[in-house]
Amino acid sequence: MHPPVAHHHPAQGASRRPSRILIVEDEKRLALSLARGLTAEGYAVDVVHDGMEGLHRAGEGDYDLVILDIMLPGLNGYRVCAALRAAGHEVPILMLTAKDGEYDEAEGLDTGADDYLTKPFSYVVLVARVKALLRRRAQGGGASPVHVHGDLKVDTAARRVFLGEDEVTLTAKEFAVLEQLVVRAGQVVSKAEILEHVWDFAYEGDPNIVEVYVSALRRKLRAGLIRTVRGAGYRLDGGR
Predict the structure, then answer these.
(1) Can you give the pLDDT at residue 5?
(2) How far is CA 176 from CA 35, 157, 164, 171, in A?
(3) 134-146: per-residue pLDDT in tens?
(4) Binning pLDDT at 50, 70 and 90, where does residue 1 land?
């Protein structure tokens, strides 16, 4: 027997099936607040409060997105995510945590999470991330998750990057920026497009943050791999 799940469904009259979201969060006030907000956005939302129940619901439910806290009773978010991926479930997972730092981010992504949000976060930012993940899921049907460009190989499903025989470790944001460039290899991708897809419309900081991440990618990969096209954006090249 499994405890009843809290269901929050949008008003009747929608012309198409709303996207279904599962929230796995043990802070009940936060979980219910997120559920109310996302329901108002038009999503069908279910809420559970522990890791074991979250794994069961995510594994058996037809969800379009899972919002998964890391610090959970019963089974932590890392283990829930890893178990879902090991079982072949490809549902997008947005991880939430009160921790901060690249180590935790890398661990979350290594288990197969698609994105990572550190508490406290803006609700507007969370909605932007949710929309971006759902949009990526809708656009990605049938597309190969592995992109090969010269000696660069980017596996967008496993979130792994190889340069020749060597695997390169990237942070979540570095990977997201590289992903935007590799799926359009040879084309110019503007700074605004990268901001929209990686940080979404909610980002109100310095747009030059893109340059910071491009510089980091050049250091970790190869200086000539990402070309700056003045006044236009960036292009993934094969330069050595």
Answers:
(1) 54
(2) 27, 12, 20, 9
(3) 887 776 544 456 7
(4) very low
DSSP-assigned beta bridge partners for residue 161: 154, 168
Parallel/antiparallel/unpaired status of strands 146-149 and 160-163: unpaired
**Alpha-carbon distances, residue 96 vs 104, 119, 143 (angstroms):** 11, 7, 27
Full-prediction pTM beyond 0.70? Answer: no
Q: Which residue has the tokens 């996302």?
A: 38
Q: Which of 130, 117, 132 lies closest to 194 in space, CA to CA?
A: 132
Dihedral over alpha carbons 115, 121, 127, 129 (to 10 degrees): -20
Q: What share of the chain is helix, strand, coil (3-state, %, to 5)?
A: 40, 20, 40
Q: What is the pLDDT of residue 15?
A: 45
Beta pairing, strands 226-229 & 233-236: antiparallel
The secondary structure of 48-83 as a DSSP string is E-SHHHHHHHHHHS--SEEEEESS-SSS-HHHHHHH
Mean pLDDT of 36-49: 94
